[in-house]
Amino acid sequence: MNHKYFNFLAAILLLYAVACSSGPTKTTEAEETTKPYTEKYRPQFHFSPDSAWMNDPNGMVYYEGEYHLFYQYYPDSTVWGPMHWGHAISTDLVHWQHMPIALYPDSLGYIFSGSAVVDWNNTSGFGSAENPPLIAIFTYHNPEIAKAGGVDVESQAIAYSLDKGRSWTKYEGNPVIPNDGNRDFRDPNVIWNEEIQKWNLVLSAHDHVQIYTSDDLKNWKHESDFGIDAGTHDGVWECPDLFPLQVEGTDETKWVLIVNINPGGPNGGSGTQYFLGDFDGHEFSADSKDTNWVDWGRDNYAGVTWSDVPKEDGRRIFLGWMSNWAYAQLVPTEKWRSAMTLPRTLSLIKKKEQYVLKSSPVKEAELITANSATVNSDEALKISGVKELDIEGLTLNQSRLSLEFEMGETLPESFGILLENELGENVTLSYSASAEQFQFDRTQSGDMSFSDQFSGISVAPYKIGSTVKLEIFVDAASAEIFVDGGDLVMTEIFFNSQPFSKLKVFAEGQSLTLVNAKCTGINSIW
Ligand code: FRU
User: Fold this and answer.
1) Residue 155 Cα, ligand 1 centroid: separation in angstroms?
2) Is there a contact between 386 and 489 (Cβ–Cβ < 8 Å)?
3) In terms of pTM, does the model score above 0.90?
4) Which domain holds residue 231?
5) Distance, CA 445 to ligand 1 centroid (Å)?
6) Is residue 23 part of a domain?
7) End of a domain among 327, 345, 361?
8) Fewest CB atoms within 10 A around its CB: which of 91, 298, 325, 479?
9) Cα-Cα-Cα-Cα dihedral sign, residues 269, 271, 277, 280
10) pLDDT tens track for 107-135
11) 258-281 confidence digits (pLDDT tens)
């Protein structure tokens, strides 16, 4: 028999057999591999673009039941290029719907980072009181001027939407803030300031931020500068955000100024610092000029917060880009590059006379939790040395781990947890009592060959109490670690070649007690 004919017949028979045996809901293998969001390293419950390059979150605004997420996007490649604003919408902060590109580069330049607001009183005149416009405020980055070595490369511009963010019209009077002689002059972030009944804008200008006011979002007055003598200056200041936050359990309000910096982060490369202080609508004065970090991990950058979250809700919700410019363009994903963090609720607490900005995953994260394994429900577990926990077959690579440790009389020299696969690749989170710090070790995490800046151990200073709670979200190629409800946060990515299947806890030097351990599976949002 002709071989070709035989192969063809065999294939038909095989397809028929598969179709009959697998029932109506199963897909064939061919379909399975082309199914989106199943690629190697693809996050299952974090936002990532369908394809191509993404960096900073932009224009985050809530309007009429929808959370908008725009983002720095280059649709033609998996590395950075002429920037667009990609767009996605969510009604619950966890499930995202991809939307068409919102803003394309034009003769004034690429569309760099920025923010968006609802112009409720139609101060800009682009809409009406009945249909207030959404206003996007972004940076134009002119590549021609950059190439020619000019300084006036960056300026601020606006665009408006009258159809709930579906289509955007750029203002013909752009730029609304022309370049002022700073080569780095970008990432405008706008809020409505109730107290002075004006708009405030904060942007970054290389080594400081500038603060502006406006009545109509088109005409801006430069009010003041902050930062030349404050914070860290090992890199360029980028993507600021300025907003008030009530101190938990009090009537006191502090202003939070977030300033991203690259390089110069706490563990190398990109990082997000913040300052707390007072703001009268014109000038920001910091309580302390020292740097605080929003996140001590290496992979949370360019994070800013949503505007116009309803007062009844009252949350300040933060989202960051889960990567680091030190290696972002080299990470081993093929179809797309990078993801966002989980949205996080920011809160301010006073701890031993010190204010601390906490972040914790938004409560909507509960919506996607699946089955869970309570590792030890009745009995507390004494840990001395290394112990593997029984996670009852749950997929660690897509999970939420909640662990509570109780210290004995003396602290162990070190304790922590380890996620490991069959190949021995692992990531470890440990606490060192002598160094008083948490450490995240990804030196044996899998593929690290793409950059010599990737491997390493991140450290985060922290004083623990008699108990420690760890909440860890693991999603394919990332871990978001929240210590004691978000007093300390670390976000790190990694590229293990097989999923993690073992969860181990350890205590060295002294024993401790694991009083609670729960491992919860998380459903895919796609
Ligand atoms: C931060 C950043 C911003 C800039 C954008 C360009 O990651 O460098 O300062 O607007 O990315 O894509």
Assistant:
1) 13
2) no
3) yes
4) 52-361
5) 28
6) no
7) 361
8) 91
9) positive
10) 999 999 999 999 999 999 999 999 999 99
11) 999 999 999 999 999 999 999 999
